[in-house]
Amino acid sequence: MTETVFHGHHIHLVEGSDPDAAPILLLHGTGGDEHDLIQFGQIAAPRATLLGVRGTQLEGTTTRWFRRHGEGRFDLEDLETQAAGLAAFIEAAGQHFGFSGPPVAMGYSNGANITAGLLMRRAGVLRGAVLMRAMSGLAPLAGLVHGGLPVLMLNGRSDPFAPQDRQQELARQLAGAGAAVEQRVTSPGHPLTMADPAAAREWLRRWPSAGS
Ligand code: MLT
Question: Does residue 187 line the site of ligand 1, with CB under 6 A?
Answer without folding.
Answer: no
